[in-house]
Structures are given as C-alpha cells and as structure tokens.
Amino acid sequence: MIDLQLMALLLIPLFGGGMLAVFGARPWAAELNSLMSFCTFVASVALTMRVIDAGPQAAFNEQFFIDQFNVYLVALTAFVAFTTSLFSRPYMRIEQHHGKLSVGMLHLYYSMYQLFTFAMLVALTTNNMGIVWVAMEAATLTTVLLVSLYRTPASLEAAWKYFILCGVGIALALFGTILLYFAAERVLGQGGTALLWTHLNEVKGELEPTVLKLAFIFLLVGYGTKIGLVPLHSWLPDAHAEGPTPVSAVLSGLLLNVALCAVVRSKVLVDGSLGSHFAGNLMMGFGLLSLLVAALSLFRQKDIKRMFAYSSIEHMGLITFAFGMGGAVATYAGMLHMTVHSLTKSAIFFAVGHAVQKAGTQQMDNIRGLLQVSPTVGWGLVLGTFAILGMPPFGVFASEFLIVTTAMHEYPWTTPILLISLGIAFAAIFGKVQPMVFGETTAKPLPHPPALVPVFLHLLLVLILGVYMPAYLSDWYRQAAALLG
Amino acid sequence: MLGVVGLWVKDAARFIFPLSAAASLVLAVSSVLALSTAPETLVLPLGLPDLPFHLRLDPLSAFFLILLGAASAGISLFGTGYFRHLEDKTLRLLCLEYHLFLAGMALVMLADDAYLFMVAWEVMALSSYFLVTTDHAIPDIRKAGFLYLLIAHVGAIAILLSFGVMQGGHGIGAYTFDAMRNAELSSFWASAAFLLALFGFGAKAGVLPMHVWLPEAHPAAPSPVSALMSGVMLKTAIYGILRVTFDLLGTQLWWWGVLALGLGLATAIFGVMFAAVQADMKRLLAYSSIENIGLLLTGIGLTLIFHVYGKDTLAALALIATLYHSLNHAMFKSLLFVGTGSILHATGERNMGRLGGLMRKMPWAAWLVLVGVLAISGLPPLNGFVSEWLLLQAFLLSPGLPNDYINMLVPVAAAVVALAAALAAYVMVKFYGVIFLGQPREASLERAHDAGIWERIGMGWLALACVGLGLAPVFVVHQLDRVAQMLLGVQLGNAANNWVFLTPVDIERASYSPLFFLLAVLGVMLLTSLLVRRLYHGRVRRSAPWDCGFPAQTARMQDTAEGFGQPIRRIFEPFFKIEREVPSPFDMHPHYQGRSEDRLWYILYQPLQHLTEKLSAMAGLLQHGRIHLYLTYTFVTLVVLLLFV
Amino acid sequence: MTENTEFIFAILFQLTQLLLVVLAAPLLSGWVNQCQAWLQNRSGAGVLQPYRVLHKLFHKDAVIAYNASPLFRATPYIVFGCMWLAAAIIPIIAVDLPFSRAADVIALVGVFAVARVFISLAAMDIGTAFGSLGARREMLVSFLAEPALLMVLFTASMISHSTQLPTIVDTLAHHQFVIYPSLAFAALAFVIVLLAENARIPVDNPSTHLELTMIHEAMILEYSARHLALIEWASSLKLFAYISLGIALFTPHGIAEVGNWAGLPLAIGLLLLKLMLAGAGLALLETVSAKMRIFRAPEFLGTAFLLAVLGLLIHFLLGV
Amino acid sequence: MASNYASQFVNLLAALLLLVVFAMLAQRRILSMINLFAWQGLLLAVSTFIVAYSTAQHHLYYSAGLTLVLKVLLLPWLLHRLMRKLNVRWDVETLINIPTTMLVGIALVIFAFNLAAPISQLAEGITRGLIGIALASVLLSLLMMLTRRKAVTQVVAFLALENSLFFAATSATHGMPLVVEFGIALDVLVATFIFGIFFFQIRETFDSLDITHMEKLKDD
Prior knowledge:
The complex is a heterotetramer of chains A (485), B (645), C (320) and D (220).
Chain A: H1 2-23, H2 29-54, E1 57-59, E2 64-66, H3 68-97, H4 103-125, H5 129-147, H6 153-188, H7 197-202, H8 209-227, H9 235-242, H10 245-274, H11 278-298, H12 304-325, H13 328-359, H14 370-373, H15 375-388, H16 395-410, H17 415-437, H18 453-467, H19 471-484
Antiparallel strand pairs in A: 1-2
Helix pairs in contact in A: 1-2, 1-4, 2-3, 2-4, 3-4, 3-10, 3-13, 3-19, 4-5, 4-10, 5-6, 5-10, 6-8, 6-9, 8-10, 9-10, 9-12, 10-12, 10-13, 11-12, 11-17, 12-13, 13-15, 13-16, 13-18, 13-19, 15-17, 15-18, 16-18
Chain B: H1 2-9, H2 16-36, E1 40-48, E2 51-57, H3 59-82, H4 88-110, H5 114-132, H6 139-166, H7 177-182, H8 187-205, H9 213-220, H10 223-248, H11 254-277, H12 281-308, H13 312-347, H14 358-361, H15 363-376, H16 383-396, H17 404-436, H18 453-471, H19 473-488, H20 514-535, E3 540-543, H21 561-571, E4 576-581, E5 593-598, H22 599-622, H23 627-643
Antiparallel strand pairs in B: 1-2, 4-5
Chain C: H1 3-39, H2 49-59, E1 62-65, H3 70-88, H4 105-126, H5 129-160, H6 165-174, H7 181-197, H8 216-219, H9 225-250, H10 263-288, H11 297-318
Helix pairs in contact in C: 1-3, 1-9, 1-10, 2-9, 3-4, 3-9, 4-5, 5-6, 5-7, 5-11, 7-9, 7-11
C-alpha cells in the first residue's frame, strides 16, 4: 500500500517529465505542467495522511523510508512546486511575450521542472544515503539547465558557477558518504543495508567516531554548498538572480531545504556516534557566520532578486543554527522556520517576478511606486517582506521568537550576533523595499494578468501558522523533533 | 472586551469612527470596574502549541486600558471630523490600520504571555508605521517611517531577548508570564533582563538616546494618529517597563533605579530644551512628549529606589505620581495634537512662523487648546500640576535612604525636575502665544475656519478630562492605589480619607485642594470685578495698539517661533548643532535662517551607519566574481575543518 | 478652648489677613519707593502715592486694542486673584490659617506660575513687538527663578519635614532655636529670586520705559485704567507676598500661635518692623546696584539656583 | 596468499593513481591531460577488478566494467571530439605556476596521509591506507580545479575528482551498493553531456573557453 502511494508520488513527476519532454512545445504545456504538479501534490497529501495515521514506514525493501520529518518536507515540496507551476504559467507567457523565451526553451523548462521535482522527492523520501547523494546530484543537473534557460551571458556564467561549485561540493559529499559507508560496513557488514539511514540510526552508537567526524565534515561542506552556507554560498546569489523567477522560487524555497534535510539526517548519526555536540556546534558556527555575512551583504545589493537570494542565505543560516542547537524547542522551531520560509520566500519571488516584469528591470533603483501601478503586486511584496523580516503575526516571527529566546536561554553568547544580524537585515531589506512600493511611477500594465493567487495563498498560510497551529500539525512537528532529538 | 476590539478591526465606512469612540468609552468604563475586581484571565485557542494566547486583566493593565479608552474616545471623535475629507479608498485603508493600531495597543496591555505580547506589540508598531506613511508620496515621510519602524524593530528584538532571559524553565510553555513570575533569576541575569527591557521599551518610548525617530514620525503622521502615538503608544512602553520590572522580575536592584532616574532626567531636560527651539508645532509637541516620557521614567526610577530600600509608602507615592502623570499626559498631549490637527486643516501650515492670531478665527480650538496648554505647563488647578506635585512630594519625603550618594542625588534630581517643569511652561507659552495670539503673520490666515462639530466634541472631551483629573485628584489617587497595591503590595491608605484635600501622607506634611483653590480665585475675581464696577465704572474704549511712534509696524515684526526660542538656544548653546545663514549688510533681500539640530544624531547614529556600510563593503569583497576564488573558499574551508578535528 | 471656637478664631485670623494684605500691599511698595527716594536724596512722593495712583487709574476709561481677545481682558483679574490668594495663605501674623491647607509651598509656586503664564499670554495677545518681547524675557527669567524658589522652599521643608507653610513656620519659630547653615544659602538665593521675580533692579527696572531693558513694563504696555490698576496692585501684592514669605521662612520668630490674643499685638508690631526693614533693605539694594544686561540675568539666576541646591545638599551633609 | 599479492598490487595501483594525479597537476597540454585522465580510469578499472576478484564481490565486476567503458573509452573519446570540434589545442595556462602547485600538492599529500592514518588503522585486509591516497588525490584534483583557467581543464579536473572518489568507493570500501554506483555513474555521464552542451554555449557567447571572461556577476 505504502509502496503504491510512494510509487505514485515519485512516478507522477517522472512521467510528467516524460510527457512534457514530448508535448512541452504545445500551447497547453503549461496547463499540463500544473496538472502534473497538482497530481503530485494530491499524492503527497495522501502519503502524509497515511504517515500521520500509521507513523514512520519503510518501502521498497527499506530503500525508502518516510517519517514525520521528511513527510512534511514532502508535502511542503509538492505544495510549493504546485503553486509555483501555477505562477509560472502566466509568468512564462509574459516572458515569451517580452521575447525573452522561445518555445524550445519553454519545452526544456517544463520537462526539467518535473524532473527537478522528481529528484527532490527522491532525495527526501529515500532511506539510502547513497541515493540521497544521487538524487541531489540529479537535482543539481536539472536546475543547472533551468538556471541557464535564458542563454544570456549572465545566466550562462551563473549556471556555470552553480554547476562547478555545487558539482565539487556534491563530490565532497560523496566522499563523506563513502566514509560513512566505510564506517558502517564494519558494523553492518557488506552490501545493501550499510547505507540505510534507519539501520545506521539503530547502530549509530557503535560507529567509529573518528571516521564519522571526517565523514560529517565532508558531508557538511558538500551539502552545505547546496544549502548556501557562508563561505560556500558564492553560487547562490548569481543563480537566483539570473535564473527565471519560478526557478529562483523553487531553488530557495525547496532545494535548500532538501540539502539541509540531508545534513540534519547525518548530524543525527554523527552526534549519536560521538555522543558529543560536535556536529551541532559546527552547524551553529556555520549558521551564525552565514547569518552575519548575509545580513551585511544585503546592505549593498542593487538587484532585487539578488537581495532576496541573500535573505535566503540568512534564513538558511538561522535554520541551520536552530538545528545545530538541537533540543525539542529549537528543532521544532527550525522545522517551522523551514516551512514558513519556503512559503514566504516563494511568495516574495512570485511578487518580485511580476514587479520586475512591470518595471522591466531588476535594478531596485528603477522600480518605483508598485502600490500605485498595481496594488496587488505591491501589497504582496510589502506583506511578504514584512513576513520574511519576522514581523508578527506572520509565522516567520513565531519560529524566530522560539529560536531567539531559546538561544538566549541556552547559548546567550550567540545572541549579540543574532540581534545585530537581524537588525541589519531588517534595515537593509526594508529600506530597499519601501521606496519600491511607495511613491510615484510610470509603468505600463502587463500583457497577461499576473498570477497573484499563489502569493496571497502562501501569505495567508504563513499568517495562519503565525497565530494558530492546528493540533495535529504541531503534534506532527513535535514527533519529528523527537525523531531528530 | 475583545469582541469590541474585533468590531473595531472590521472595516466599514465613515460611521465607524464614532462607533469606535463609543467602544473605547465602553472599554474605559469596563476597565474602571475591572480596576477594583480581582484579576480575570482568559485563554484563547490561538497561538503556538503549548502556548495559547493568555489574556489577563489586572489592575495595572486595567489602568492602562482606561488610559487607552479615555484618550482614544476623544481622538476617534475628533478623527470622525478630521478624516471626513479623505476619498473613500484611502479612508477605508486608514480606518483599518487605525483600528488595528488600537486593537494592538489594547492587546499589548492584556497579553499574559510573551508571544501574544510580542505579536500585539509588533502589530501595533506595523499598523502605526502604515499610519505614519499615509501620504507616502513625500520622501521625508518615508524616511521618518523607515527610521521609526527600524528603531521599533530593534527594540522589539531586545524585548524578545529579555523575555528569553526571563523564561521559566524549558519548553514552549515557559513563555507565559506566570512561568516568568515564578522563574528564579540570579541578580546578573535579572539585571540583563532589566537592561534589555529598558533598552527595548525605551526605544519605543523615545528615551535618550533612542529618541531620534520620535520628532520625525510624530509630525509625519496625520494629527489624530500622532495624538494616539504620543498620548497612548508611548505609554505602552511605560506599561512594559512597569510590567517587567515590578511584576515579572522578582528582585530589583538599587542601581536600576539610579539608572532609570538618570536616564529620565537627561531625557526630560533634553526634550524640553529641544522643544523650546522648534519652529514646527508638531515637532515641538513631539519633543515635549520626550520630556514627559523622561519625567515618567524618573518617577519609575524613584519608585525602584524606594522599593528596593523598603520605603514602600514612598514607592507607592512615586508610582502613583508616575501613573497619574502618564494618564494626564495622555489627555493633554492628545488634546494638543488634535488641536494642531484642526489648525492644519484650517491653514495647511505647520510652521509656527506662518501662523498667529488664530484665536479670533477659530475660538473653539483656541479655548480648548488653552486648557491643554495650561495643563501641560503644570499650572494649578489643572491635572498637569497634580502629578508634578505628587512627584515633587515623593522627592521631598525621600531623605533617610541608606545610600548617601542617592541621598545626594535626590535633591539634585528634584531640582532638575523643577527646571524641566519651568521650561515646559516656557515652551507652552511660546506654542500658544505664537500660534493663537498676536496678529496673523500671513494674509492667507484670514481664510482660516474653526474646527468642525465632531472635532469640537473630541477636543471638548479631552479638555474635560484634563479639568476633571485636575479637580478630583483624591478620587483618582484612590483608584490608583489598587495598582500600587498590586505592584508593590502597599497602598497610600489615607489618601482618600478627606474628599477635598489631597494628602498623600499626612495633613501636617502636605496637602493640596485644587477645588478650593479654583473657588477662591474665581471668588476673588468675581468680587474684584464687582467692586470695581460698583465703586467706579466698566467703560471700555477700543483703539489701535500703541506703535511707539513707529507707524509702519506689520504683523511680520512680531516675535517668531525662532525668536522666542532664541534665549534658550543661547543659554544651552553647546547642546545644539546650530547652522545659521546670516545676511551680509549688502544683501538686497536679506534673509536669515537658523537651524538647531540634535548632536546625538551625529555622535551616535551616523558612525553606526558608516560602520555598517564599511562592514558590508568588506562582506561584498567576498563575492567578486572569480570562480577560482569561490573554489578556493570551498577548499580552504574543507582544509581548515579537517585541520581542526 | 473648644474645637470650633478655635476654628472660628482661625477663620477670623484668615479674614483679617486677607484684608490686611490687600490693603497693606500698596503701602509696602510705597514705602520702598519712599526709601529709594530718600536714599537718592529726593523728597519722594510719599508713602501713600500708590493708593492715589490706583484711585486715578480706576477712574479712567479702559482703552483696549481692536484685536484684544477676552483672554486679554480677563488676565488682570486672574493675576490679581492669584496674587491675593498667594499673599493670603502665607502665615505672617498667626500660624494656623485654614486657607493655607489648600496650597502648600509647591502649590504656592504654582499660583505664581499661573499669574505669570497668563500675563505673558496676555502680553502676546495684541501682537505688538514689545508684548512678546516682554513675555519672552519674563518666561526666561522665571524658568530659572522658579526652580530656585522651589529649591529654597525645599530646604525649609526638608528641615521641617513638611511642605505646609504653617508647619514650616511653626517648626522654625516655636521649637528650640537652631542655626541652620543651609538656610543661609537659601536666604541668599531667595533674595536674588525676589529681585528677579518682582521686576527689580538689577534684573529689571520698574520705573523705566526704555524698551530695550524693560521686562515687566513691556508686557503690560497695552494695559490701561482699571486693568493696569489691578496689575499694579497685583504686583505690589506679589512683592508683599514674597517679602512676607521671606520673613516667614527666615525670621518667623515672634509670630503668634493660634488664638493667642496676647501674642497678637506683639506679632503685628514685629511684622511691621520686619516689613519696614525688608523694604528699606530692598530699596538700598536697588540703589547700590545697577541694571544688568538681559543676558547676564540667566547667570545671575543660575547662581541663585546653584546656591539653593547647595543649601539643600548642605542640609543633607550636616543633617540640619 | 593471493589476497596478499592482490593487496600489494592494489597498493601499487593506488600509488600509480596518485602519480597520475600529480602528472595531471603538472601537465601543461590539454590533450595529454585527457589521455592521463584515461589512464587514471584504466588504473581505476584494474584495481576495482582486482578488489572484486580478491574479495569475490560480483557487483564490483560490473562497476569495473562500467568504469572501463565509461571512463577509459567513452569520456576520453567524447572529450577528444569536443576538443576537435572547438579546436582548442592551446596549452593550459595556470593561475599559479606549476612548481608552486607541486609544492602545495606535496603538502596536501602529507596532510591527507596524516589525516587518514587513524582510519587506515581500522581498515583490515587489502585496503589498508587506501583511504589516505584517495583523500590525497581528492584534494589534489580540487587543487587542480582551482588553479586551471580553462573551462575544459576544470572539467577534466572535476572528472579526475570523481575518479578518485570512485577509487575510494571501490577499493577502499570494497564498493558501495550497486544501485548507488549505477546512480553515480549515470550522474557522471549526464554531467559530462551537460558540460559538453555548456562548452558550446559558452563558446558561442564568449567566443572563448577562458572562464576568466565569466567574472561579471559580483557584488559591487
């Protein structure tokens, strides 16, 4: 039964990729894309229901394993992928109308989009650290093609950097995986089961500490590149700024989460084996560094998408910090922050996408008076910005509240950095967004009506999460937090 | 009560403002009742898991709710008239924000757990930000809004941290105020919490040196909003400080009090000094708000000192003075701000140098504002005097503290308070005299019209409150005793035993009866006027004022706002950053301009800004495009990490 | 003696004093002027001159500027009322005055402030250059003088642990005789404040109409006839109040206790003596000192403020 | 007995592998770099084969074959074709001059060995100390990537990196589970194709494969 559901979940996007590889050039490709994503979403919901009822389960002779932790990421991923596909329909039409995209490019876009979803879902659901790696690599490859979609010099450069850096990072992660296996095979013996997370988790106490330390470093540097932890983050702003906006949305909304999920999984193993807080401390360090540097970099950005890319780095840093602190509340907060960040950030990118199309430039100095030219986009951007800046009653505040207070309680010495970074980030982003939405402007309306349902849908969800969390959801989070310890 | 709040938030057309005024009245009255009853708590099914929204209505919050209700009732009534001319779209938006603002403030005072408190706090900040930037086409207003929200947010994070310090035990459930009350803190952490709270709330209240946003944001906002912000929102910060210091933190240290006292005095003097040299009437009022916040903080500091040294009656006295003054300030400052609002409507002019003689054009506004002016200058028998009187009493009764330094400090502090009060009178005479008295300085002022009926009602209500609070101090103090009872466990028992004389401690030590005073003066006035008319006559002849032999006098030759402030600027020269454009003897069109600015901005904030920019420039160097470098980062990171295992 | 007879006596005292002050006040200013005249080798207009002036002014028709507001017309009465009340609640012949319960020393300062604010507002009402000039200078002088006065009063009330004038006077007069060094400072400060607040040389010159130097006269420039009369009367009441306040604070000895008929004549006699001495002293001071520039005034008053605070500190240091 | 020989032989191959990496690091000409890469692949295949034989793990035969096909024949051939198509025959320009690079390389090797010492204590059987070599060659290939200036050479270095990883996977740890290895191989293949596409795109947009052209995107 679970096998079937899982198969549905994984095969729909794969099949969709195939379909769109064939029909991607048709005028109704966009609708097909959305349809496929919707089916994926439905499947993910079904799977989630099941897991909530029946608890963690393995599938395909344990090659896949689904517990509360990854299933909520699965649901989140499927959902955001779906809304993004909705958004990309008019967005891509407008781009085409502006002559930035050809039909062939769209063709590539749609098929790659589905494959990308597939890769992410595999990376989330698989139980095999090796396959995690494979899926991550696959996700990288697909997104590289998406980032370079426009074929402009800038996009090529961005894609190339993205490709090389993440390729190297991923390769290092592979070495880490190998070391993990090296340690594991001596406990679990040769062959298939030695890379299965569940098994590793059972025997994590017996794994060889020195090897795991080494392994974790490689895994952290490897997947950390993908998360965008400073100083491995260099690819991230370029890729976000130069790729098509829907891709930026899924990149910072989803892919980063997936990579982080992998790191967290391995952190559980390593700290379990070392019996110390080694991995946690490393993560906290990287988190704080990313937070600080990202906040400072935000100050000087001129390109709007670049700026929000940095804000993604900042938030990933915060989440990494939270998971690094560990403990029930912090982990809980970390997962909550993952959720609300993906929702908010993708919403922001949707709004930004249309704003950029209106103004015809990504330079923030040339974007003015959004509230006047189209109030919906303007308000979407304003509210999204306030949400991402951690203004209540949006959900981002809830998680930041928990993270900051817990940090104050557990690791007081970190709080000055938190205070400074959050303050600077606020000043930077808010100070740049305010003149964009306010004031006067002369911009022409768009050829197609913008898709703002996703924006406000996301923001609404974030708002609700901020003031009210349904009991089953919180239980679900709590179990996940318990799983990760 | 929250039902009422919820009703506010619902957006509707113009009749909503009187409605909300009524609602505020209901709120105020119900809180008056709640003042005497035991604390009621309420838990909503909202909020974080394990941390639903807790609400609690105890005397402290009840008192501040009274303040909110009473002030906002008048302001909303005024707003009914003031916002009449807006077109519908803007009005709807503004109405929504306005009531969100009110609801946020009410919730701040009702919140009983850190999360709800922060949510309400930031909702308050956010909605007020949108209100401030109502006409955001003007860049200066955007700048003001930015500064305001930035400082508010940083302050909010500080408050958050202080809650983090105070949280009781682990888990999400540890953020209720009850848990915090029970938490045992070492004196170090308690101090940390206090300092963080002081910083955070101080940033909201405009305490030195976090005051810079206040004189920018208040003038930028529409007048009823400035009234709300200055009259009520600043008090939420005072509420927060009181709540944290006396309710949540179990122990207090004497130096907290000294710190608060010092900060308060500095703020008071600073505020009034700058108020004296302002030419923009709303800026002037904003600075005077800073001054009053300083006085309130002084009162809190005094309370702390007395409380720590076990002189609880005096602590109660100081606390009651503080609360009383915050109530008074809410009333007269709102009155003055809405007054400027109707002036703006009538003349479209904020610069006092272009006003004058409005008393003839708009008598209603003039007389009502006069009440506020007299009250804020601390003149008997109005309310401003009562709270100052109580505060000074607290100072006078202070000797005998075990700490000599504080004993030395207290009289000096009293002197500073007295100085600030006297300067406030100066400022207010300037404010009123330049705007309402004399001759109109511009021809356009001839077309000025008086305040509308709604505006009159609103201002009338506030003025009435000023008079009432001034004439019936005994009753008020009796009510405030409950708050003192709750926070300090002591009452000013014999305050109420004599309905005509206000005797905080003992009839032999001090007493004051505004009612008697008023009657005496009025009686004497009546008597004299009667006698004069009886013994002599009441003939009056009108003629032109004496021009001392210089017939070519124009209205422009009157004393301007700058001129009136000039002595102050001259006496306190070093505190201002003064830029002057003095005409040379040969100018065909001589033109004088003087601006006095806040040195703190240049000493404190600009360096901060530059530092941040420098740092971010350094961060920018990381990202300079060469892929080899990026690879090197990866490589180095890897090697370094490997080295350190 | 029973309760209510005592109370009746108290009321009696109070009424006596009310009448006494309002009638005697012009006499005092007349006395001061006369002394000045003598000191300057002039024959002088006689002690009763102020009464004649008032009488004359009351007879005249009031002339008011076209744009004068009701505030302008009400002010003289308010000022007069405040000053009368102030003078009436300072215990000079007997300690126990029912009225003085209504306003202790802080309130007393408040009363002065009310008068001052109203007269400044009235001065700005017409909108001539002089009015606002005078108002500005008046407020300038007062914002330094008022705290100084408060500090002086605080010193006294610190000593007697009360802000009630009767209690203060009672403590100082009828308990065993102690020398208070703090009061010495206070007295010095008080004199300066007195000079400043009553528009006296060296801060102001009541007898000049030279625009550049005048303060008080500049404010009341627009007043005439009965309004002017009331204001003049009020200012002589103010002078009276200040001097008697000084007497009450620094040389209260010999003041009658409640219902002590025997002590009353002596008290009155002493009071007259003190008043005359004080007036003469004031005249002497004014004669020997010269009017100072308006911007020296803040320094002058600042000195007073510091002296007063110093007195307070000394009280804390020495405990007396 | 056999396993003993085998282990010695594998160790020898490992040493050769390291040598080849060094040779690539020192190499100035692209084509010969590609050939060296092919040689590396061959060594990899052989060592995998021997490990498979000595430890009798059948799936290792598959991966040995996979390696042979993919990394010895297919990829080098592809790369050669690319080179011919884009007719890039120029010499490799390095950012840091070769001797310095070599010195850094030596340091890295020592570092890697020290790092791996405790681990190789754990390893039993024929794979003693191979981790160290694998680690060393990983670091070396990384070094190669960040000293090379041309896109092609970077890619070759990247493939060399993958090779050394693969070596670690097969020889040091007796091979990962087959599914993983297939996945890895597939990814490598796809990656190479994408690289190929990129070369053409880069070439036609920047009419050169010098990646120093691609330094436009930066914070300023």
